[in-house]
Write a structure and sequence with these properties.
- It is a single chain.
- This protein has 339 residues and is α/β, with parallel strands linked by helices.
- The chain is built from twelve helices and five strands.
- It has one domain: Thiamin diphosphate (ThDP)-binding fold, Pyr/PP domains (Rossmann fold), CATH 3.40.50.
- The chain is 42% helix and 9% strand.
- Strands 1-2-3-5-4 form a five-stranded parallel sheet.
- It is globular, with a radius of gyration of 19 Å.
- It starts with 6 loop residues before the first helix and ends in a 15-residue tail after the last helix.
- It binds thiamine diphosphate and magnesium ion.
- Residues 146-148, 176-177, 191 line the site of magnesium ion.
C-alpha cells in the first residue's frame, strides 16, 4: 500500500532534508575555517531515510541512534542552535556540551541515550520496546543503526528477544556501504559482512524484513508505515535495510566537503553539476527528491530556492549562536556525569 504525500507534507519533508544537508555542510565549513570541533560524522546522503521515517512517528515513540545521529535529531525537531552548541562542546548544548556529537541526545524528543558504540543503539531500542509492551503503552521504538552493527553479537541477541517477545520495534538498518572502500584503503571503515543481502540474516529469526532504496523517501515511507502499523497492532518487530551510496565526503576519516556545497538547482539544471560529481549527484536522494517535486509540479524553482535560502539563513544564525556561546564552567566538570 502506498500513500501519497500532500503538497504540504512533501514540502515539509524537503525542508527537513535541506535542514540536515545544510546543517552538516555548515559544520564541515566551520571546522575548515579553523574552529575546533573535534571528530564528527555526517548524515549527508542518508537524509531521505531519517527524514521520511521520523516524520511518521508519534510524539510518544522512542528513537535510538548512533555516532551518525545529527540527521535523526534534526528530523525529530531538535533546535539547530542547541545541537550545534552541543557539537561545539558549549554549555548551551542539549547535554551542556558534555555529550558532544557522539552522544548528543534530546530526551524530550523521545531519544534514548545516543550510543556511539557500534551496535549500542539496538539493545536500547529493544529495551524501550520491551518497556512499552510491559507498560501497555501504544509506543513504537525505532533503532537507527549502520550495516556494521550486523558484525556485533548484541544485534542477534536483541533481534532474537524482539522476535520471541513480539516487541514493538523497528530495526532501521542504514546500509551506506555501497561505494565505500573501507579501512584497508585508509578510509573510514565499511562493514565486512559475508552476506551482501542483510535482510537474509534476519529471515531465520522470523522477523519480516525488506530492503529499500534509502534515497527514495516515498519508498522509505511506505515500508516504515507498514512496520509501524505492525508494531502498534501487536505484530512485533520489522527489519528494514535502507540502502544508500556512501557520500564521497564521508569516505575519509574526517568529513570533507568533497562534492562542494549542494546546489539544489542541480535538480532541474543537471548541466551545472561538475563533471567529477555527476555520478554522486545522480544518486543523491535530496537532488532526486527535488526533481520529483519539480516534475510533479508540487513546487516550482522559486519556492524551492526560497525554502533553501531560509534554511541556510537560519542555520547561519544558529552557528553564530553556537560559536559565540560560552564553554561550560570548569567547576561543573563533574556535574551530570557518572564519574
Ligand atoms: C564496538 C565498536 N567498535 C568499533 C568502533 C569504531 N567505529 C566507529 S564507527 C565504525 C563503523 C560503523 O559502521 P556502520 O555501523 O556501518 O555505521 P556507518 O558509520 O557506516 O554509518 C567503527 C568500526 C565503535 N565505535 N564501537
Ligand atoms: Mg555503514
Amino acid at each position: 500500500m502506498t500513500s501519497e504525500l500532500n503538497q504540504q507534507e512533501a514540502m515539509e519533508l524537503l525542508r527537513t532534508m535541506l535542514l540536515i544537508r545544510r546543517f552538516e555542510e555548515g559544520l564541515i565549513q566551520t571546522q575548515k575555517s579553523g574552529i575546533s570541533i573535534g571528530h564528527f560524522h555526517v548524515y549527508i546522503g542518508q537524509e531521505c531515510t531519517g527524514a521520511a521515517a521520523i516524520a511518521l512517528l508519534e510524539p510518544q515513540d522512542k528513537i535510538a541512534t548512533t555516532h551518525r545521529n545529527h540527521g535523526h535529531l534534526l528530523a525529530r525537531g531538535a533546535d539547530p542552535r542547541r545541537l550545534y552548541a552541543e557539537i561545539l562542546g558549549k554549555a548551551a548544548g542539549y547535554n551542556k556540551g558534555k555529550g558532544g556529537t557522539l552522544h548528543a541526545t534530546v530526551a524530550g524528543l523521545g531519544f534514548l541515550s545516543t550510543s556511539a558504540l557500534v551496535g549500542g543503539a539496538v539493545p536500547l531500542a529493544v529495551g524501550a520496546g520491551f518497556a512499552a509492551k510491559q507498560l501497555g503503552e501504544r509506543c513504537v521504538s525505532v533503532g537507527f543503526f549502520g550495516d556494521g552493527v550486523l558484525e556485533e553479537g548484541v544485534f542477534f541477541e536483541s533481534l532474537n528477544m524482539a522476535s520471541l517477545w513480539k516487541l514493538p520495534v523497528v530495526f532501521m538498518c542504514e546500509n551506506n556501504s555501497a561505494g565505500a572502500l573501507g579501512q584497508s584503503a585508509g578510509e573510514y571503515p565499511g562493514s565486512t559482512i559475508a552476506t551482501k543481502q542483510l535482510i537474509d540474516v534476519v529471515a531465520p529469526f522470523g522477523v519480516p524484513a525488506s530492503a529499500v532504496d534509502g534515497g527514495d523517501p516515498r519508498a522509505v515511507r511506505d515500508v516504515t508505515q507498514q512496520a509501524l502499523a505492525r508494531a502498534r497492532n501487536g505484530g512485533g518487530p520489522t527489519f528494514i535495510e535502507a540502502r544508500t551510496v556512501r557520500w564521497p565526503g564521508s569516505r575519509p576519516l574526517w568529513p570533507e566537503l568533497s562534492t562542494g556545497e549542494t546546489d539544489v538547482a542541480f535538480a532541474w539544471e543537471p548541466d551545472r553539476i561538475p563533471m567529477a560529481h555527476r555520478d554522486w549527484f545522480a544518486n543523491d536522494g535530496l537532488i532526486r527528491y527535488v526533481r520529483q517535486l519539480f516534475d510533479a509540479k508540487l513546487a516550482n524553482t522559486k519556492e524551492i530556492l526560497a525554502l533553501d535560502a531560509t534554511v541556510r539563513a537560519d542555520l547561519a544564525k544558529a552557528m553564530r549562536f553556537a560559536i559565540e556561546a560560552p564553554y561550560p564552567d570548569p567547576a561543573s566538570a563533574l556535574d551530570d556525569v557518572f564519574a
